[in-house]
Design a protein that fits this description.
- The chain has about 170 residues and is mostly helical.
- Helix content is about 60%, strand content about 0%.
- The longest helix is centred in the first third of the chain and has 30 residues.
- The chain starts with about 40 loop residues before the first helix and ends in a 12-residue tail after the last helix.
Length: about 170
């Protein structure tokens, strides 16, 4: 415990105060220094971008279905509206995962991986269709495979704190 604090003593970061007996360059033993944060790897940022793109696509598709269900002439307005609401709700998952990846939260890797895996069958379905859906399937497949590769990359897992440096596991 630090000693009494006098009027001439300087404050420390975080609101703690240094006892008067300590010189200006020395801090008390209970002061903790925060570790220097390393910069976020580009692969982690790119993985968050892939999740963000998928979130944007899901929300845009949901809004389109919702608007068409309300204003258009679909076969089943209730089905179009429910599909739109479902896509918007599903778009929130990769959006939250993307934010978690940008903030380096380890929990965000799971929802991000699931989103990429779930995008692959959708991409396949779009690829096997006809017309304008094929380019959309190609784009979705590229984003999903790129996202998977980025998320399982050792640099990404290390930055998220999921596993230590690659050299540590061989000791």
């Amino acid at each position: 415990m630090p000693g009494p604090v006098g009027p001439g003593c300087r404050g420390l970061s975080g609101g703690a105060r240094r006892p008067c007996g300590y010189p200006a360059g020395v801090s008390s033993s209970n002061e903790q220094t925060a570790p220097a944060s390393s910069p976020r790897p580009a692969r982690l940022t790119a993985a968050a971008g892939a999740c963000g793109l998928e979130a944007l696509a899901l929300v845009a598709g949901g809004v389109y279905l919702l608007v068409m269900g309300l204003l258009g002439k679909p076969d089943s307005p209730q089905q179009a509206e429910m599909g739109g609401i479902t896509l918007i709700a599903l778009g929130v998952i990769p959006l939250i995962a993307a934010r978690g990846l940008l903030l380096r939260r380890a929990w965000s890797r799971g929802p991000a991986l699931i989103t990429q895996i779930m995008a692959l069958p959708v991409a396949y379905t779009l690829l096997t269709s006809t017309g304008g859906m094929i380019p959309a399937g190609i784009a979705l497949a590229v984003v999903a495979v790129t996202g998977l590769v980025l998320l399982v990359n050792p640099t990404t897992t290390e930055a998220l704190g999921i596993r230590g440096p690659a050299g540590d596991s061989q000791r």
